[in-house]
Amino acid sequence: xxxxxxxxxxxxxxxxxxxxxxxxxxxxxxxxxxxxxxxxxxxxxxxxxxxxxxxxxxxxxxxxxxxxxxxxxxxxxxxxxxxxxxxxxxxxxxxxxxxxxxxxxxxxxxxxxxxxxxxxxxxxxxxxxxxxxxxxxxxxxxxxxxxxxxxxxxxxxxxxxxxxxxxxxxxxxxxxxxxxxxxxxxxxxxxxxxxxxxxxxxxxxxxxxxxxxxxxxxxxxxxxxxxxxxxxxxxxxxxxxxxxxxxxxxxxxxxxxxxxxxxxxxxxxxxxxxxxxxxxxxxxxxxxxxxxxxxxxxxxxxxxxxxxxxxxxxxxxxxxxxxxxxxxxxxxxxxxxxxxxxxxxxxxxxxxxxxxxxxxxxxxxxxxxxxxxxxx
Length: 376
Prior knowledge:
By secondary structure, the protein is of the alpha/beta class. 31% of the residues lie in helices and 31% in strands. Strands 6, 7, 8, 10, 11 and 12 form a 6-stranded antiparallel β-sheet that branches. Strands 3-2-1-4-5 form a 5-stranded parallel β-sheet, with helices on both faces. The two termini are 24 Å apart.
């Protein structure tokens, strides 16, 4: 468990707006005796809230070492005997019993950019009893035009005269990356406007295309767009990360930079199109302003080499890399009979040249055990 993991989850449990909103949603949904699946449980705060509201059982799922933190929290709170822990991606595991409620907080910065759509769609189909409920149930997206030199600095620094010319070409990648930023109210110069809605209690399209017209509130230099969300946890219970809201959770917004800032006057209309494939973490934005049309996407922000392009071709014929072959060999000896030390010794003896050094091989064997094996 890293310090960054702890810091991230500390911000979740000490955010009174977030904790309060989920508390109200849980009170509205949870009934005595219910079974709850907590996706991406982290430190366990959401599942703990459900148990205190009357749930009989929580199945906590997380693919990181934070699940051990959750185990400690539940034990300290006196609920250890009513929680089952499953380490792994929710899409790759199966809870032992169907659930009445699935709860999570994977809304990201722009509402759909942290996996919530695919995780809840899979959980709704495989984990829930008929008539079961997912929390949250709906996400509404909002968009604004932003005047913020400090946000744009991450892009503009790649054009600085102090940077050697051969490195300035890398600026095109910075121009196509979605950035988390914490905006000030005054930095929203155009809009905001409602962009669209994603329902989480029914199937969602794989592809979304939303359009909005933003009105400039004042003369401004627009450096990009900012997106945020309003999330309906239960009927009438909402939370938002909008920088314009009086009560907002402590979460950044998504900044989508413009390749070239646009000068706009009060009353000008800014045409915006947002295209997204949430399950593939793809986002594109088109801005029409000042007589220009700028089109950018996270695809253009990826550093893709020839291998990346070839492996994305469904017709490509793959073969194992050296590391892949090493993984295959190690897993062949993981038979439920041999101990960890026995397997490591066998691999060292029979395949000493599998990796460049014995130390590298020993570390690799341990990594394979950690990721792909369980102890009997």
